[in-house]
Here is the input.
Amino acid sequence: MKRLLTRIAGAAAILMLSGHLASAEGKLALYNWGEYINPEIIDDFSKEFGVDVTLDTYSTNEEMLARIQAGASGYDLVWPSVHMHDIMQQLGLLQPAHPNQLPGWDAIDKAALRSHEDPNGDFCLPYAWGSVGILYNKTHIPELKSWKQFFEYAKDNPGKVTMLDDLRETLGVGLIMTGASVNSRDPDEIAKAEAFIMEQKPNIGAFRYDVIPLVTAGDTAASHYYVGGVLNTLQNPELLGFVIPEEGATMYQEDVCLLANAPNPHNAKLFMQFLLRPEVAAKNSARLTNGVVNTEAVALLPEELKSNPSINPPQDVRAKLQIFEDMGKDLRLYTRAWDRIKTN
Amino acid sequence: MIAGDTVRSRRRRALLLLLAPITLMLGVFFLIPLGIMVVYSFLEPGLYGGVEWNWYPYNYGRILGWPLNDYEEFDPIYLSIFLGSLKVACLTVLFSLLICYPAAFWVSRMSERRKTFVLFLIMLPFFANLLVRIYAWLLLLRPTGFINTLLQSAGLIAQPLDMLFSNFAVIVGMVYIFTPFMFLPIYANVEKLDYSLIRASQDLGATPLQTFLRVILPLTAPGIAGGSVIVFIPALGNFIVPAFLGGSKVQMTGNLIERSFLQSRDWPFGAALALLIMASVVLVLMIQFTRTARAQARGAV
Here is the structure.
């Protein structure tokens, strides 16, 4: 009798425990960039853990920060770029989620711990990274290798190229071409970069994010664009190409962070743990065509991604990629330069 | 006497009751946000968006081109952007007026059934989202788009015209969006036009030009003024059209405001720019208001 009781109690305890683990129940609210997660991952997580997941999107770091600062509550996880991760952590908007104590953390490439504020991964989980290069139409330009070639083509075919409508990115190209760091705080260097872009402006068709339809149709020959464009080059390899220019390029990386006022921190950590699974990271990258920060996921990538020099670049190319740092008050230097470029 | 008073006070109470919701709504959704904007425009920008609560009148100085620190020089770029916006808004008013004024006369002479149908056609674009309609223009104007393909197959042009991402595309898009707003006030006015006055003018020996300038134009002036104001105000602050069809190379104050909040983290400067637009709109409305009042006073005499 007693044995039966203990057995029942044990079974009940196991049931309770497993119930606790498997059905975390309740909700999880994600606030991510538009089209920056494979929707299948959300579905899989939802099904496995019985969590009701909602996803809202933003299109710039500043937009997300403004909403969180204005008191938007109800979100659990956000995807700031590394410099915004630093800012948000300094502003006390994040709480430590300790992804570094979760199973699977060892597979995270330690080079991806780029945040100055969070060097050990106590707060946020590195998510994905990518470069910003050039997407081009091969019927117009058979092979594009460098910014130099891009601007020469633009000179001969004014209006047939576009650059991003982003002050840091596009002035960043100016800085790269004039031999300065994309995080320069030197007014003279920024002035030189401004002059460089200004000189190209008559040949640049537009400053624009949404370029894939234009490049595909051949309305523009080449466009400054994110590595996400590789997805289109894989679908249409005869027509489209993507390149990290020889002179160098900028790169970005986002981290997954837990907000200080997150209503569902437990589910949020569960989701981080889910993202740490190599097969999940690989599935995500296959959709986003981004670089992975999970060393075990690299082997699981589809062959065309693994061997793609834009997504999995060799070391010498990686060395030429620069990541943006927060400029603080000096952002004003860039703003003025950008306003002048846009106006004149 | 007493009865009259109660009727009057009852009326007053009813009026107050009827006006209360709109007053409350304007107070909450217009005056308070406006107040926040005014206050913010005099504060120091926060390092990461938002504001520092320090008195900081330089946002307005910056609009006028004053340098904020040592390495900046006097450079009135923001004023020139504002003047550029004024120009685009005025051109939009002009072209939509040129389209709508004759069209209003044409429609007003139609049979009732056709009139209703044409008015329905004019309202039809409102059923589709603005962004979708702007995107449609992108597809029409681009080098491999409908217009270029048509012109090329007709043998009229050898190379596709560069229409997209230009001032031309911006004006086309703006006129397209705002045409209905211009049409409706003018049409309302033209419809009421008393044709016996025109016949009288002709009988008295006026030339067609004289009839137009001295009879038709003054009678339809309120519609023209109303339509122009209704088009001018939103056109001045528009930022979608320059971003989409101008390729962000044509810049209006609306784009600058958007960027101040979403890219350069300078909310007070954005607020100051928004107030500048608002002030110019109020100015236009005041001119319009005093002119109508004067015209009415003259009409009374």
Q: What stands out?
A: Chain B touches chain A through 35 residues (CB under 8 Å). Residues 2-40 of chain B form the longest helix (39 residues).
